[in-house]
């Protein structure tokens, strides 16, 4: 899949959810969490969060800076989407 | 040369002069003299008294691990830079001739070897987990792995950073509360054992040197969750103490990876405790001098009861 540069928040959220379904190791089928549910509480491991991070970088063609490689940034659908928006704004 | 480097070199020379380390020409790979091994053995016996009174099972593995175990445990994702895989020759006579001729010509001959199904184990506990698949009995398991050699590809001039060294390792598996309780007991006990030997101990939240950007995220996460603690004591320098004991809490990582269940049907949590026995011996030689016969009687009584 070619990298995308989506600016719209809702599009980012949909893509983030897709990546979490594919790489978050949170079970098969659609992601049954709200945007603010704690992904670690529902079973995302630290190792899975690294896969999610790397997949997001490939999909959005961006690189999370060192200060964003933290647990909290990948804690919820919203926190991930906000981080990506922030990176787009900075470009 | 920095002061730290000078200190390192001076300490290394002192170890060699006293026959405690025998240099081989390769950084981080040294023979150990008899007096050094005596300290290693006696420390092992001291620690073993505790695990015996805790009722630990004693299991010992050679310093190898199946390559598949490293794959399943995610080791190649997190620490590929430290691994050592066992390679061997499996070619025919023609290939053998080429191999010998490459050696004769001073060429790299490693391409004639093939990776086997084994790696040098990077931690004493790795070979244990796949053998523990299934449901644990009530109360989980406590295993004392004795002092097994482990390999980490980290050549260094620091006499305390060895490519192959021993970990006196213990592993607790079971429900989270039992694993955490065991870790808490050993955090206090470990510190008191080291202090009783005259070592100045600092306990720090730590992280592993995971590889790459994903690794930096794992390290940060490990620290935030306080999954790893180290006990550090001065070896080469007082300002930069060296980790001699570490506690790793893996939560359900190995339980899920290797299908280890507590008797309530939940994935077991695991934690391990590893004493770096060479480093502890080095710290003792540094602190009390190169002649164990002249060490303080309080320390000698503990090590040679």
Textual characterization of the structure:
The complex is a heterodimer of chains A (91) and B (305). Chain A is globular and about 35 Å long. Chain A is mostly helical. Chain A has helices spanning 9-23, 46-60, 77-90. The mean pLDDT of chain A is 88. Chain A has a single domain (9-90), classed as Non-ribosomal Peptide Synthetase Peptidyl Carrier Protein, Chain A, CATH 1.10.1200. Chain A contains 3 helices and no strands. By secondary structure, chain B is α+β, with helices and mostly antiparallel strands. Chain B folds into 2 domains: 3-84 and 122-303, BirA Bifunctional Protein, domain 2, CATH 3.30.930; 85-120, no CATH class. Helix content of chain B is 40%, strand content 26%. Chain B contains 11 helices and 14 strands. Chain B has a 7-stranded mixed beta sheet. In chain B, strands 4-6-5 form a 3-stranded antiparallel beta sheet. In chain B, strands 1-2 form a two-stranded antiparallel ribbon. In chain B, strand 11 (228-233) and strand 12 (242-251) form a beta hairpin. The termini of chain B are far apart. Chains A and B meet through helix 2 of A and helix 8 of B.
């Amino acid at each position: 899949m070619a990298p995308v540069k989506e600016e719209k928040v809702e599009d980012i959220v949909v893509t983030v959810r897709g990546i979490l379904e594919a790489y978050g190791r949170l079970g098969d089928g659609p992601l049954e969490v709200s945007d603010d549910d704690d992904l670690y509480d529902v079973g995302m491991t630290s190792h899975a969060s690294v896969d999610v991070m790397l997949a997001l970088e490939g999909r959005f063609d961006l690189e999370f800076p060192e200060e964003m490689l933290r647990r909290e940034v990948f804690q919820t659908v919203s926190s991930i989407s906000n981080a990506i928006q922030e990176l787009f704004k900075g470009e | 040369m920095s002061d730290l480097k000078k200190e390192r070199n001076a300490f290394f020379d002192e170890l060699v002069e006293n026959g405690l380390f025998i240099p081989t020409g390769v950084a981080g790979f040294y023979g150990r003299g008899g007096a050094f091994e005596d300290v290693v053995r006696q420390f092992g016996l001291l620690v073993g008294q505790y695990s015996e009174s805790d009722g630990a099972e004693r299991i010992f593995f050679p310093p190898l691990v199946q390559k598949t175990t490293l794959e399943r445990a995610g080791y190649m994702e997190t620490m590929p830079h430290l691994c050592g895989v066992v390679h061997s020759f499996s070619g025919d006579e023609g290939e053998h001739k080429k191999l010998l001729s490459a050696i004769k010509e001073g060429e790299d001959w490693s391409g004639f070897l093939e990776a086997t199904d084994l790696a040098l184990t990077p931690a004493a506990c790795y070979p244990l987990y796949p053998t523990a698949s299934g449901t644990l009995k009530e109360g989980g398991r406590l295993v004392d792995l004795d002092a097994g050699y482990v390999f980490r590809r980290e050549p260094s001039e620091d006499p305390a950073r060895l490519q192959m060294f021993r970990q006196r390792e213990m592993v607790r598996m079971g429900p989270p509360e039992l694993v955490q309780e065991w870790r808490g007991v050993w955090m206090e006990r470990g510190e008191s054992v080291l202090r009783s030997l005259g070592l100045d101990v600092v306990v720090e939240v730590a992280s592993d040197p995971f590889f790459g950007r994903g690794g930096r995220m794992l390290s940060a996460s490990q620290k935030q969750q306080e999954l790893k603690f180290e006990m550090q004591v001065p070896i080469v320098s007082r300002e930069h103490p060296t980790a001699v004991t570490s506690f790793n809490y893996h939560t359900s990582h190995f339980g899920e990876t290797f299908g280890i269940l507590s008797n309530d049907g939940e994935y077991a949590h695991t934690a391990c405790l590893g004493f770096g026995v060479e480093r502890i011996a080095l710290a003792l030689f540094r602190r009390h001098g190169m002649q164990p016969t002249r060490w303080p009687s309080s320390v000698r009584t503990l090590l040679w009861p």
